[in-house]
Amino acid sequence: RSSNESQRRVRFCRPGRTESIMSDSRWYLIHSKARQEDVAELNLRLLGVEIFCPRLRKLKSTRSKAQSEGEVLFPGYFFIKIDMKTGYRKVTYAHGVLRVVKFGAEPAVVEEAIIDSIRERVHNGFVLPPPSASLEPGQIVRIHKGPFHGFEAIFEQELNGTQRVALLMKTVAFQGRMVLNRDCVVL
Question: What percent of the chain has pLDDT over 70?
Answer without folding.
Answer: 73
